[in-house]
Amino acid sequence: MKFLLFFFLIVGFHAFAQDTLCDNPDEAAQFPGGSGAFKAFIDKNLIYPEESLQYEGLCFVSFLVCEDGTCQNFKVSHGVSDCPDCDREAILMLQLMPKWKPALRNGKPVPVKHSVKIVFRLQDVLVSEGIVEKKRKVAIDNETPAEFPGGTPALNRWLGENMHYPQEALDYGLTGKCYVKFVVGADGVCRDFKILRGVRDCLSCDLEALRLFSIMPKWNPATKEDKPLEVSMRVAITFKLN
Fold first, then answer.
1. Are 165 and 239 in contact (CB under 8 A)?
2. For the whole model, what pTM was predicted?
């Protein structure tokens, strides 16, 4: 199975109503490494929602690039028609972005509003047992992604062996996915865990996901040109009753 995701970056700046934002910087805010690196980031991190394979379209997202390069206040200004899951996935993916190179005005960093347009389009999609699999492309620029020791099958086994299904979820039949963002350091240690989107109506599921990550063994760190890198990752933990 494979599918392709296409996107286009809109270069432009539109001020919020606040006077603190700059609508005419001398230098534009930029993803580290430029548009090519941004395309690579999108390809590696955007996951087509498995519940929305029948939908294609455009998702416009605006966000604030602060003086220190952090990105925040993500908002879908125009989403994929009839597909809120695509819109949520676009924001989840953008929340994984590293700091940008901030916009400059008179040589000083200034906050600006930035917009991107992401195109969701499927090609040659295969669904097996209700699971959508994304074929990873060959590592870009000699980069190897971070990985749980033994790969995804080993991670799934580890989660199954260590998960304590919350009693609240058992009592009320609660199921769903908890999306966790975290950092894999150059030494393989996982840290800075954050719930991007939790299981609906089940705080105890989200807390269990964080507990699992707190006891997770070291990962094999990402590398570029054989040198270990610190990277942000996202994992979805599924809470499902048999």
1. yes
2. 0.56
